[in-house]
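Reminder: ligand-aware prediction takes two inputs, not one.
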Amino acid sequence: MRAVVMTEPSDGPDRTEVRDVDEPNPDSGQLTVEVEHAGVNFIDVMARRGDPGYASSWPYVPGLEVAGTVRALGDDVTGFSVGQRVAAFTRGGGLAEVAVADSRLVVPLPERVDTASASAAPLMLATAYLLLTDAGRFRPGDAVLMYSAGGGVGSALAALVPVLGGGRLIGTVTRADKVDAVRQLGWDVVLPLEADMTDAIRAVAPDGVDLILDPTGTRMLDVDLDVAAPSGRIVLFGNAGGGTPDPLPPAGRLIGGNLAIGGFSMSSLTAAAPARAASALGTVLGLLAEGTVRLPITEVGSLDEVAATHQLLAEGRGTGKYVVSVQRTR
Ligand SMILES: NC(=O)c1ccc[n+]([C@@H]2O[C@H](COP(=O)([O-])OP(=O)(O)OC[C@H]3O[C@@H](n4cnc5c(N)ncnc54)[C@H](OP(=O)(O)O)[C@@H]3O)[C@@H](O)[C@H]2O)c1
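Here is what comes back for the chain with NAP:
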C-alpha cells in the first residue's frame, strides 16, 4: 500500500515521500481502516521537525485522524463489521491507504456525514469541543482568546462557540495577510501576532478574557496572565514554536488573579482515557450529522500532495482545515 513516509527529521518537505510499505494487520484490540480521507495537521509538522514526543520512530508515517471503512478486525474485536463506515483516532500512520487503530478509538460514522468532514473530526473538532467544554469550562457569553485562530482547531472553535451558547471570539494569526480570511471563519476580532500583544488584546477586551486557549507553549503566558479576567481559565494545549516550555508562574500570581491554568492533549487523552476521547468524537460527529456545525474544509487531492501541504502549514500560509483524499491505487 502507499503511505506518506518521513525518512528523518527536517524543517522542510525534502525528507517526506510517498512509498510502498507493508499493509498493517490488526493486533488484538485493533482494527484496520481503508482510508478514504485523512486529516493533515500542524502536529505532523512538529513530528517532521523532530520535536520530542511526536514521531514514535524513524522512518515515521504521520497521520492522527482518518475516516473510511473497516478493512479487517483483530481477533477479539466486537461491535464493528468489515465494510462499516467509521472515523478514528490513529497513533500515527493515518496518512496511508490503510491505517491501524485501537478499536476503543473508532466510532461508527452517521450516514449523513461524509468522510472528508469526518476525517477532520477526531483531532480538530473533538479537540476544539473538549477544549471548550471540558478543559476550558466555557460559559455562554465568555470572551475567548485563541492563538493560531486560522488553523483547523481555530475554525472548529469558531463553529462550536455559537452552538454552545455564543461568546466573543478573539483570535490571533501569525501573518497579517490572513486577517480577513480568518474573520470569515467566524472570529469577531482577528489580531496579527506581534511581539507584545497585551495592549492590543486589552483594547478589544477591556474587561479581560474569560477563556484563553494557547497552543504556543509558554511563549505567550505572561500576556495570558495580564489579559485574563478574574476567574479566567488559561488552557495550554501545544508548543507550536518548539523548544522547552518555561516553568509555570508562582502560585501567588494565580491566587491573586483568581486564575486557573490547565493543560490539554488529545493524544494523551486517547491513551489515558480512550472512552472519553471516543465519546467526544461521537458527539461532534452527531453535530455534523444534524447540520448544527459546518466545517470549512480544503481537500487535498492525493497523498502525493501532503508534503507540500505540511510545508504550507509550517509557513503559516494555510487557512482552515486540510484533509487529503486517499484513493487506493491497487
Ligand atoms: N493539544 C492537542 O490535543 C492539540 C490538538 C490539535 C492541535 N493542537 C495544536 O493547536 C495548534 C493549531 O493546530 P491546528 O491543527 O489548528 O493547525 P493547522 O490547521 O495545522 O494550521 C496550522 C496553524 O498553526 C499556526 N502556526 C504555525 N506556525 C506557528 C508558530 N510558530 N506559532 C504559532 N502558531 C503557528 C498557524 O496559525 P495562524 O493561523 O496564526 O497563522 C496555523 O493556523 C498547533 O500548535 C497544534 O499543535 C493541539
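Residues 41-43, 46, 123-124, 127, 147-154, 172-175, 178, 215-216, 237-238, 240-241, 264-266, 313, 316, 318, 321 surround NAP (CB under 6 Å). The domain at 129-266 is CATH 3.40.50.720 (Rossmann fold). We will return to this case in the review session.
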